[in-house]
């Protein structure tokens, strides 16, 4: 199984990082998606700080309740439907099942689409850093953990979830430009182009 085999239509992909940075500067609402461990939250928090956007973590604010209990799906959609009405935000979270309500309110999508080995490494490093604690972008009472099920989720993400993301973007945000970041170098270059917080 190869990484990155399902792609968006070329007309929707934005590959020029300078143009992507211009889009981000002008955007009022940005959606950041991708596999766990790829760096979505780190990137989202930096962009939020740089441009004074409200940071919404789907994991923390929508999906999880304390103790790794999943919130009821109807309630999840109510929360998302309320939060997307805000004027300026960056939303960190993949969840293909809610793209139908998130994408129509989104100006720009950043897909952090790192190779799976890098995502595995990122998830393990994050666990080691936060072991025994809850990281800020996670719901209270969700102590950082890692197990085989989670590692399998990461390893098969491209095969199982990328097609759903591509289909969701095509169906619910066909005019929304999408930047795919496929390396740490690209991510660093984008952040350099965006500059430090004011």
TrEMBL record:
UniProt-listed InterPro entries: Cytidylate_Kinase-2, P-loop_NTPase
Superkingdom, taxonomy of origin: Bacteria
Region forming the signal peptide: none
Name recorded for this polypeptide: DNA topology modulation FlaR protein
